């Protein structure tokens, strides 16, 4: 029996990086996977292939996590075609390598909107069906930047710290509906937003990681599959760090 056999998962930001690794891993573990992306068509096609390559249903849905109508349309389609969703992963996230002195108010809003409001809107849309069915699992993707004093853009760190509060409050509200909510906070990974880091900063970072390397998106995706599985039925409201020991 695979870890996610028969589950229907929704993953935001699935067109590359950690999101694509999550889609592939969840499909490998037996889940049908719907994913959102906002622009990267080629990446979305590659993710679709990864999912169907594991013999599972794939649904690539082009809509921003800030588009309320788009999210409602996705939720309606899932209810109609798949009978709903069992798992939601709020993975879509962005960062900008900006020092605070050069950060415009609009930069702050852009990062907070996608990383925090996007998680709220996607959750509201997808969780309505979970509440009706009294069953579901939500995993938010946080970051080490929101948990520890490492150097990172302040809007990004603030947005990821907000996801911890979002996770805890949502857990309290949703537990009575049979929905578990957790947050997985990785350190720097080999793909995605971490690539913005200049080489000298990367070397400095790795020096402080007890395991002596950055993580891989596959490692995070494998653990994220366990986190949303029925084998992890008693973990709720947690933010779990996965950072090589920092
Ligand atoms: N990589 C790391 O080192 C690292 C470490 C800790 C935490 N994380 C977290 O992991 C998550 C994934 O990051 P990543 O590194 O994989 O980033 P990435 O490679 O830049 O991918 C981001 C994904 O989010 C999608 N996206 C961006 N804005 C969106 C929007 N408004 N609506 C819908 N989708 C949107 C992108 O698709 P489109 O371009 O098609 O919109 C893409 O699929 C983020 O929450 C990030 O903070 C990453």
Task: Give a brief rundown of this model.
The protein has 246 residues and is an alpha/beta fold. The chain has seven helices and seven strands, in the order E-H-E-H-E-H-E-H-E-H-E-H-H-E.
Describe the structure.
The chain is an alpha/beta fold. Helices cover about 45% and strands about 15% of the residues. The protein has helices at about 15-30, 40-55, 70-80, 105-135, 155-175, 200-210, 215-225, and strands spanning about 10, 30-35, 60, 85-90, 135-140, 180-185, 240. It has a seven-stranded parallel sheet with strand order 3-2-1-4-5-6-7, sandwiched between helices. Strand 2 (about 30-35), helix 2 and strand 3 form a beta-alpha-beta unit. The radius of gyration is 17 Å and the shape is globular. The chain binds NADP nicotinamide-adenine-dinucleotide phosphate (NAP). NADP nicotinamide-adenine-dinucleotide phosphate binds near residues 12, 92, 186 and 192. NADP nicotinamide-adenine-dinucleotide phosphate (NAP) binds near residues 40, 93, 186 and 188.
Spatial order of strands in the largest sheet: 3-2-1-4-5-6-7
Number of helices: 7
List SSEs in N-to-C order.
Answer: EHEHEHEHEHEHHE
* Percent in strands: 15-25%
Radius of gyration: 17 Å
Measured between the Cα atoms of the first and last residue, the distance is 35 Å
Count all strands and give the number: 7
So what's the CATH class?
Answer: Alpha Beta
Helix content: 40-55%
Number of domains: 1
Instruction: Give the mean pLDDT.
Output: 96
Quaternary structure classification: single chain
């Amino acid at each position: 029996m695979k870890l996610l056999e028969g589950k229907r998962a929704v993953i935001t930001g699935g067109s590359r990086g950690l999101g694509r690794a999550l889609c592939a891993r969840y499909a490998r573990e037996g889940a049908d996977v719907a994913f959102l992306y906002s622009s990267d068509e080629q990446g979305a096609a590659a993710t679709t292939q990864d999912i169907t390559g594991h013999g599972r249903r794939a649904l690539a849905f082009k809509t921003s996590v800030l588009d309320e109508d788009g999210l409602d349309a996705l939720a309606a389609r899932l209810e109609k075609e798949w009978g709903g969703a069992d798992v939601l992963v709020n993975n879509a996230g962005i960062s900008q390598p900006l020092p605070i002195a050069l950060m415009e108010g609009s930069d702050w809003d852009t990062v907070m909107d996608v990383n925090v409001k996007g998680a709220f809107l996607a959750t509201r849309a997808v969780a309505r069906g979970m509440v009706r069915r009294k069953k579901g699992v939500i995993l938010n993707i946080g970051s080490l930047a929101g948990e520890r004093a490492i150097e990172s853009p302040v809007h990004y760190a603030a947005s990821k710290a907000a996801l911890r509060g979002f996770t805890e409050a949502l857990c309290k509200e949703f537990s009575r509906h049979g929905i578990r909510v957790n947050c997985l906070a990785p350190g720097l990974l080999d793909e995605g937003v971490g690539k913005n880091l200049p080489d000298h900063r990367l070397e400095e970072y790795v020096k402080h990681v007890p395991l002596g390397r950055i993580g891989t998106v596959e490692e995070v995706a494998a653990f994220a599959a366990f986190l949303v599985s029925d084998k992890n039925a008693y973990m709720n409201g947690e933010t779990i760090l996965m950072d090589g020991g920092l």
